[in-house]
Amino acid sequence: MAERGVESDHATLNRWVVKFSPLIAASAQARKKPTAVSWRMDETYMKVRGKWTYPYRAVDRDGQTLGFMLSERRDTAAARRFFKRAVGTNGVPD
């Protein structure tokens, strides 16, 4: 922006991200190629900024990531939240 002579504040950029990122994500989801009917869930744990977190991930048979969620807790509620989102975007797996 500075190269083009436009002054902007970091708060303005943050507002743009908040406003336009859902639109970009919806557009990308609509253009996503169909996935295989068989996919699996993968979960592990890792440290993020010094705290243990649990990444959940949906992976198809080719190893492509279909969905991703980072959770502070490893419990039934977190797993159900992830499955609800993954099934909503990719369909029910075999």
UniProtKB/TrEMBL annotation:
Pfam families: DDE_Tnp_IS240. Residues 37-90 form the DDE domain. This is IS6 family transposase ISPko6. The lineage of its organism: Bacteria, Pseudomonadati, Pseudomonadota, Alphaproteobacteria, Rhodobacterales.
